[in-house]
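Shipment paperwork, digital attachment
Item: protein structure file
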Amino acid sequence: MNWPQLLSPDRLGSDRPTALDPLRSPFVVDSDRVVFSSAFRRLQDKTQVFPLADNDYVRTRLTHSLEVASVARSLGARVGAKLVEKHGLAPKFHASDFGAIVSAAALAHDLGNPPFGHSGEDSIRHWFKTSPVVAKTRGELSADERADFEEFEGNAQGFRIITRLQMPDNPGLRLTCATLGAFTKYPRAARLPARVEARGISAKKFGFFSAERAFFADVAERTGLIRRGRSVAWWCRHPLAFLVEAADDICYRLVDFEDGFRLKFLSFDEVRAAFLAVTGDPKDSDRAARMRDPKDQIAFLRAQAIGAAIGQAADAFLAHEPAMLKGEFDEELLSLDLPARAALQHIKDRSKATIYATPRGVEIEAAGYEVLGGLLDVFYGAADDIARHGKKAARKSEKLISLVPAQFISPAEEPYERLLRMTDFVSGMTDSYAVSLYKKVRGISLPGQ
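Attachment content:
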């Protein structure tokens, strides 16, 4: 792979070449399009770590995405400064272009997450595999189509949102191919041939549904991604996707750990020691101690830890960049032998044991199975009834489907498309709206109560 092609400013859905404007690059435009999208706005009421939190401090998916984008921009610019010089990319490309691409992809990285975080993904998978409402449809789908829902993935839903659902007549946000490549951490379909052994971090999950396979193939061709086999829907990662992943991992580990302290799941001494282990700078301890408020001390040390992690991740990226361009590198940057690797792993392990396992969080996530499964039963059941029986469909189905926005109602009768549309509707809801609508359609509460 080569950087001039990997940094393609061409927009998906447009045959016209995109010019690079030094005053407002197309990659900055990508960020603007994501920020002004309704899907991005809804992240303000979607779970990050603590579902339906009852205080105003805890981060949501929206604040998480903004923080990841900030870290990503720093990572991209730091790496870009070296690569522009190494590969002679100036004056066409600048270090800031790398930062803008990675930042735009990071802003969009969680758009496909359903309500209730990762448990929401599990809820949709469980519903598809077990609900009698979808039993007949399961038998009508191809193996590839079934895999899309058996392994339902928020990353694939995110790719669908930005390439098809937002501004559906456009279609999608028409982001640059460089940003779409960096966005796609898992450049493979849900189902690979049995003869193919899916190895490496990029194959851990899948990044696009069968419905959007042609879209990603277009992105891969324009950016020059290496295909892993002539007839296999699986490509090597865009190198900048490793930076998006690293930015997300840095925030998950360090920022969530700070939240754990603020909510009293972790002690001041433990969090302080963990952050100091990441920074590796003995001066940070004295500088933090001069602050009177413990919260300010932790915030300062968290910032220092993020800075240290950014520097180490950037150095790791540059060391492995030649292998990335050959498609021979496929590991998480933070899993490499970084100076702070042990400290970052300790934070991750402690977070799993404390922050991510709080009783309230587990209780609400468990309720998410009932809420999302119930909503899909109700709305897919209504759509399926109308598609199969037309005017003979139950009046209840007609009433229920009138609650669904027009963009999610397909005139086609193909079960796969129908299933996609209803999943789009439910997975796009905020946590609060999903709970509220579930109560209403189940008769648990009435409008206005």
